[in-house]
Specification:
Layout (H helix, E strand, L loop, with lengths): L2 H11 L11 E10 L15 E2 L2 E2 H11 L2 E8 L3 H7 L6 E4 L7 H11 L5 E6 L7 H10 L6 E6 L2 E2 L3 E4 L3 H5 L8 H6 L4 E5 L12 H14 L7
């Protein structure tokens, strides 16, 4: 299967008006990180792999759009044109990270620089299609101030997505390397709000063929569907 053609065909079939949540969090920006090289996926772009009637990244973006944020920014990098085409009918703003090979920190910085949310930022990873929309909503709801950091927790473990108040804008812009924003979370542990959820999807990414296959099979079983041939 030509994965890129598959995902682009799904994008073309999407209706012009996507399901969009009411704007409940007008001052909160959603930032979807979708710039990685998929280096562990043996040549495929993990974001463009099939997921139900869409691709992985489309599934993530749809849920972020339904939260009701003031805006949704998607940071692109690897295969910029294909990713952009897959999202062409979604109500998002694309920003490109030319330094995507340097790691996640560069994409976080690009997204924060572009975002206009006065309250803060909800970060979603483009390779985590199992995160429930309700989980994203609860994390957004928990960000009550610009000094807060909201993190979902399931069975005592923290996962994604994570929301940062605007007070951390400068620190997020100065991040370097591939560790993401964990250093900011550690430095401000007293301001972290743990949001209890019953959603194991907060731990599930699709970095490898094996993890993608396992995640897709688990999702189809949960939804009561048989895997397509």
């Amino acid at each position: 299967m030509d994965i890129k053609k598959f995902c682009l065909s799904l994008s073309i079939k999407q209706p012009a008006e996507q399901r969009i949540g009411m704007t409940r969090f007008a001052d909160l920006s959603g930032i979807v990180l979708a710039a990685g090289r998929s280096s562990r996926m043996e040549g495929a772009n993990k974001l463009l792999l099939p997921w139900e009637a869409r691709c992985v990244l489309q599934a993530v973006v749809e849920r972020v759009c339904e939260v009701g944020l003031g805006e949704v920014v998607v940071v692109t990098g690897h295969q910029r044109a294909a990713v952009g085409e897959a999202l062409s009918r979604y109500p998002v703003r694309l920003v490109h990270n030319p330094d995507f090979a340097e790691g996640m920190a560069a994409s976080i910085s690009v997204g924060v620089e572009a975002a206009v949310g006065e309250q803060g930022y909800l970060f979603a990873l483009g390779d985590m299609p199992q995160v429930a929309g309700k989980t994203m909503e609860r994390v957004a709801e928990a960000l009550k101030s610009r000094e807060a950091i909201a993190v979902p927790v399931c069975d005592g473990r923290r996962g994604h997505p994570v929301a940062f108040g605007r007070a951390y804008r400068g620190e997020l812009l100065r991040l370097a390397g591939d560790r993401g924003a964990r250093p900011v979370v550690r430095r401000h542990a007293a301001n972290v709000i743990e949001v209890p959820v019953e959603d194991e999807g907060i731990f599930v990414d699709v970095d490898t063929r094996e993890s993608y296959g396992a995640a897709r099979a688990a999702w189809q079983k949960l939804a009561g569907r048989e895997a397509p041939t």
